[in-house]
Amino acid sequence: MHEEALIHGTCLAIGGDGVLLVGKPGSGKSDLALRLVDQQGLGLTGTARAAQLVADDQVVIRKQEGRLIASAPAALKGKLEIRGLGIAELAVVAEARLRLAVRLTPAAEIERLPDLGAARMEILGMAVPLILLDPQSASAPARLRAALDQFVQP
């Protein structure tokens, strides 16, 4: 039997790695997801990391064989809210191993030089690296990919 949690957030698979976006309602989770899906990026390594939607609005997280796996609730699978346009149907990845959590935070509340690796988000008793990111920044998709390059080991 697998442990499960339902989290309010958005999840993407970026280069295959699961990234959980969390924040207050209206903080820009779906908007940042749309920008990541729309723009392929290279991160710090120069390796292309395409983004695909896993889940928007609600994310099912389950613990499986010592890993956290993210997926969409059946009713929301393949749906992404685009403010001003409504609900869009998108191709999705059925599940992704959760490798990074991103708390959407206004720039004024983010330390300029934080202690990378110190912050963690605990889900089902397991810790996932956590970064704070201003989703309004034009560089938000690039910063997120850079964080993946720094935190995720193959």
Write up what this structure looks like.
The protein has 154 residues and is mainly beta. The protein has a single domain (4-113), classed as P-loop containing nucleotide triphosphate hydrolases (Rossmann fold, 3-Layer(aba) Sandwich). It has two helices and eleven strands; from the N terminus they run βββαββββββββα. The chain has helices at residues 29-38, 140-151, and strands at residues 3-8, 10-14, 17-22, 51-55, 58-64, 67-71, 79-82, 86-89, 95-104, 120-123, 126-133. Strands 1, 2, 3, 4, 5, 6, 9, 10 and 11 form a nine-stranded mixed β-sheet that branches. A two-stranded antiparallel ribbon has the order 7-8. The longest helix is centred in the C-terminal third of the chain and has 12 residues, at 140-151. It is globular. The protein starts with a strand and ends with a helix.
Layout: helices, strands, pairs:
Blueprint: E1 3-8, E2 10-14, E3 17-22, H1 29-38, E4 51-55, E5 58-64, E6 67-71, E7 79-82, E8 86-89, E9 95-104, E10 120-123, E11 126-133, H2 140-151
